[in-house]
Amino acid sequence: MTAYYLTFAVIAAAFYLIWRNFVDLKAHDEGSALMIERAAIIRSGAKTFLRREDRAIAVVIAAAALVYTLVIEMWAGPALMLGALLARSAVEIGMRAGTYGNVRTTNAARVTGAISRTIRIALLGGSLSGFTVQAFGLVGFTIVFLLSGGARTDIIGSGLIWHSARNAVTIRLTAYSLGCSLVAMFNRVAGGTYTKSADIAADTVGKKNHGLEEDDPRNVCSIADLIGDCVNDIAGNISDLLESFVATPLSCILIAMQTLNADPEMLMAACTFPFVLAAGGLFSTLVSVMFVILKNRKHYKWVEMSIEDFDEKYPDLSNLPQHRKVGDGKMEVRVEYSLEIDDPAAELDLTTTISAVMTLLIGAYGAHSIFGGLNMFSDSKFGWLLPWASALLGVVSSVAIGKITEYYTSTEHRPVKDLAKSAVEGEAFLVSEGIALACKSVLLPVIVIAVSMILSNAMCGTYGIAIAAVGMLSFVGTTVSIDAFGPIADNAGGIAESCGLPENVRVITDMLDAVGNTTAAIGKGNAIGSAAFASVALIVSYIGSYPFAEKTSLFDLVVSMIAGLVIGCAIEIFFIGTLTKNTIRAAEKLADEAERQLNLPGVMEKTRLPDYNEAIELAADNALHYMVVPSLLSVASPIIIGLPFGPDIIVGMLAGAVGTAIVMAIYNANAGGAWDNAKKLVEMGKLRIVHEGREILLDKHDSANGAIYATIHAVTIVGDTIGDIMKDVVAVCLDISVKSMSTVSNSLSMTFYSSPLRLV
């Protein structure tokens, strides 16, 4: 039980830091009255959207919990509701942190003019998202596991009206994970539709039709877009990665319960190690993120000056800084200063490095303590290293996928620079170049995932694959903290623009926003990679959960699986099409509303403000209206297919869905990230092109090249608009889709087998 006591101790430390960081964040000044007003609109809009979304989600959660209680296992329904409640609570904290942190980040840039101090506030807000993901996900999972009996296979449960014997521990954990998945799916679909419809409408109407800046307050969609950044990039991301984080130890325990049920000691060890990794990763997250936050706080130093200079510089005797005499006519004054930072990405990379190294060291100690002497995976005295090596593969895969993603999506590397240069030739070239970049970017991450799966399976069997998934997300709190940094910085830039703050403020926030685009792409890559590992483990668990051996015809089995494979592929493609079409429809409605309001007397002349509330409500209505069908598609598909056609076809369906979702998620995420940063590269004045035989640096403030800048910028907006849906709606929903399918299938495998509706 020591491992579980330590897990709760780390969770308690996380809860304390969540409270401390929230208090610290709110203690900082919001800035001018106009900044406070803009931030209040964003905060209110985000809060209103979540409350309206809650009403829709609550109905689905209650219905799912009732079904699980009645026909699956009587305590599975409450476990599902607990997962949904904790996921939603994490979203609430992260959302509040984001909407309080955005304006304070703007003000930090305005008042200090220092990148380091601005990074600190944005990361302080982001840390609340990261810490809650791991703390809330882990505390509920641990409670359900221990209250259900822990690592035992003899605890049997059944539904209140359908008395089929099931392992109570695994079915309750599966239900808990599904509760998290349902919240994640609704948040991602609704949040993605909200933010991208607003973003596309803002770009189309504001930039292309009227030549307005990105966050011009005259464009009602600009405010809706800032709200959307919060409800999707913060709320959606929190619930997404919390669900992913929970699914990884679930896959470990499901595999362990099936393969090690004859040896209680080995079963206990296999079930305990994921908790050690997850708790170690959370501890590493707390240390690494807090180190960077504290490192970039304001510093003080003693500066020597003459008494005359001191009197001249500090004439107000009632407000003197701390000082002391050091000699004849000399004074030392304690003055404030900020660290000088040229590369914000390096600060964020530092948190990841510290987290990864600490997690692996803790994991090695845990593996030796738990598996040492068991000869569980090898007769060698070093056999305990094998599960740790599987976790190492997950961490290495995470870092490798992040670096590959960074290469293809960062403004600092050749692919995005070449993509931006292609805009010189027009929209068709930019779009074609982006598609080519995205296609090429898929291969290396998939190879990393595949090789890691093969090696981890060779070392520890399917349990090794599941442990690799845990390793990949063991310090997900760091990933989410950095990821949430992006939308906070983006919002900060939007507030700066809408409030007419000096250019130097926007320079700082734009720099952080560009880094945030890359960190967001890396976060998506981690979610996708972990989904691949977890889904494969869940598929294997599904296969082991019903009597496969009763199949008399191998041919029938193969036909069922191939049919399922094709269906699974088609479901994910249909899912992509539905998400894309819905977002476009919502964007069209918002664009019409923005155009209508811009044509009202006085709006373009800045003598009156548009009606933001009308656009915000329209964006929310659209998002909630269009979220139902795609959100339920992944949950309902296994039921619709499995009840009449049995459990075999589901194996193929899951395999087809996983393969399609992983490839398409990487493709869409990297295409969108690259197009977005190609536009940012132009806007930051960092793109060099050859024009009329000479190389020029595009700059919107350069009157000689202003027309060229405007033309190329308009082309990159097209790419960014296309990529918005791909990276922030499609890519982020695909990994949730396959895990939801896998989780539901695991819950209902025996139901499919004994279904009275079976046709074959």
Q: Largest sheet, described in full? A: 3 strands, antiparallel
- Describe the global form: globular
Structural class: mainly alpha
Beta-strand percentage?
under 5%
Total number of helical segments? 20
In whole angstroms, the N-to-C terminal distance is: 47 Å
Strand count: 7
Would you identify the regions where 5 or more consecutive residues have pLDDT less than 50?
none
Summary, kept brief:
This protein has 760 residues and is mainly alpha-helical. It has 2 domains: 2-298 and 338-753, no CATH class; 299-337. It has 20 helices and 7 strands.
What does this structure look like?
With 760 residues, this protein is mostly helical. It folds into 2 domains: 713 residues, no CATH class; 39 residues. It is built from 20 helices and 7 strands. It has a 3-stranded antiparallel sheet. Strand 6 and strand 7 form a beta hairpin. The relative contact order is 0.13.
Topology diagram in text:
Elements: H1 2-27, H2 33-72, H3 76-112, H4 115-147, E1 156-157, E2 166-167, H5 168-210, H6 220-259, H7 264-295, E3 299-306, H8 307-313, E4 323-327, E5 330-337, H9 344-371, H10 385-409, H11 414-421, H12 427-460, H13 462-473, H14 476-498, H15 503-543, H16 554-598, H17 612-626, H18 628-645, H19 648-683, E6 688-691, E7 694-697, H20 706-753
Antiparallel strand pairs: 1-2, 3-5, 4-5, 6-7
Helix pairs in contact: 1-4, 1-7, 2-3, 2-5, 2-6, 2-17, 3-4, 3-5, 3-6, 3-14, 3-15, 4-5, 4-6, 4-7, 4-14, 5-6, 5-16, 5-17, 5-18, 5-20, 6-7, 6-13, 6-14, 6-15, 6-17, 6-20, 7-9, 7-13, 7-14, 9-10, 10-12, 10-13, 10-15, 11-12, 11-19, 12-13, 12-15, 12-19, 12-20, 13-15, ...
